[in-house]
Amino acid sequence: MLSERMQAAINTQISRELFSGYLYLSMAAYFEDLGLKGFAHWMRVQHREEENHGLMMFGYLAQAGGRVLLQPVEGPETGFDSPLDAFGKVVEHEQKVTAWINEIVDLALAERDHATASFLQWFVNEQVEEEATARELRDTLRLIGDTGPALLMFDRELAARVYSPPPEVAKWGVI
Ligand code: FEO
Known about the structure:
By secondary structure, the protein is mainly alpha-helical. It has helices at residues 4-34, 37-63, 83-110, 114-144, 149-159, 167-171.
């Protein structure tokens, strides 16, 4: 059985994951407005990924005998200065998410809640990948700049992103 404190921590993280999705959907809207369809597509895929992170936590919490209590999801930022500004914010946001996940892992270890610590390990690894991808895209934008043919080529590259939910999404009974 999960402690009250752990249930609260996971419930809070569910809302943060949903907020992450909402933030990336807001970035998708920004890129749509700029006419950068590939960037917008990439952000919509990112939105689905984040939604699934929240749903995985929902599934785990319910399956582990906890009570899912959804919290308000704050409104995302809607104005970005440039594609580079948006991706710089993706990097910063993912670093924050990593710190939040680490805090919950710390709590699980302190409570000797091995099931939750094991469940969260997937997120720990996922964050390494999420941060690396965000940094790589931000750094590419730094090199190519915010306008010009290279940006359009990069847009085409991002349009090719295919979303395949990881098996863990199904494992926690959410699709
Ligand atoms: Fe669910 Fe991008 O962290």
